[in-house]
Amino acid sequence: MSDTSSDATTPAEATAPAPSPGTDAGTDAGSGAARPAVVLDVWCELQCPDCRGALADLRALRERYGDRLELRLRHFPLDKHRHAFAAAQAAEEAAEQGRGWAYVEAVLERVEELDRTGEPFLVQVAGELGLDAEEFDTALIDGRHILIVDADQAEGKAIGVTGTPTYVLGGERLDGGKSQEGLRERVEEIADRLLAEAP
Predict the structure, then answer these.
(1) Residue 161 class from Cβ within 10 Å (0-12 exposed, 13-18 middle, 19+ buried)?
(2) Strand, coil or helix: what is 157?
(3) pLDDT of residue 195
(4) Counting Cβ atoms within 10 Å, is residue 95 exposed (0-12), middle (13-18) or buried (19+)?
(5) Radius of gyration over every alpha carbon of the chain, rounded to an integer in angstroms
(6) What's the pLDDT at 12?
(7) Which of 99, 175, 193, 197 is packed most tightly, with the most Cβ within 10 A?
């Protein structure tokens, strides 16, 4: 289980963060398309078994809300997982290549392989998804996504994230690292309220 020390539901100490570059964010307001009414920040770590356990809930939320709820990946690699920082960078590269969430899910489904193999596994998954594996390898070497991962992690610490998965929705922080029981229902309750209040 992830390292956590906060209550299951506590107010976030910061407003909803801006989208991380490269994540599967919603359409930019300047493009003319409407943005989702509600944003759920998912503080995740790709070597975390608890995050793998949350996949079913995230899929259910996407199915229920569709474009009305934006699931925004935020990185929070934990020191105890030695491949987590590289995996976060790889997720950013996947997002840049247009398959961010698909990549995240593929890696989380095989956490044990990431534990054993490390960076070669991250490149392998990219190839399996039809992404440019050579570009993945280069991105992990040149560190082009490090600043995004660092910024997410710093922001997470600033609002009290201590483990993964952690969700921030409507100013509330929900800690899924301690227990995911009832968590999706709580997310739905908040999302339904926010959607009802949206103009």
Answers:
(1) buried
(2) helix
(3) 93
(4) buried
(5) 16
(6) 37
(7) 175
Structure tokens, 10? 């506590």
User: How many C-beta neighbours within 10 Å does residue 12 have?
Assistant: 21
Residues in the chain predicted with pLDDT less than 70, given as ranges, are 1-36
Residue 101 · residue 71 · CB < 8 Å: yes
27 neighbors 189 (Cβ within 8 angstroms): no
**Is this model's pTM higher than 0.70 or not?**
yes
Share of the chain residues as helix, strand and coil, in percent rounded to the nearest 5: 50, 15, 40
Helical (H) or strand (E) element with 158? helix 146-158
The residue written with tokens 């710093």 in the block is 154
Give CA–CA dist 70/26, Å, rounded.
6
Interior CA angle at 26 toward 178 and 185, to 5°?
35
d(CA 163, CA 89): 18
Coil, helix or strand for 168?
Answer: strand
CB 159 within 8 Å of CB 168: yes
* Closest by Cα among 191, 134, 151 to 168: 191
Q: Spell 13-48 as b/e; 16+ CB within 10 A means b.
A: eeebbebbebbbbbeeeeeeeeebbbbbbbbbbbbb
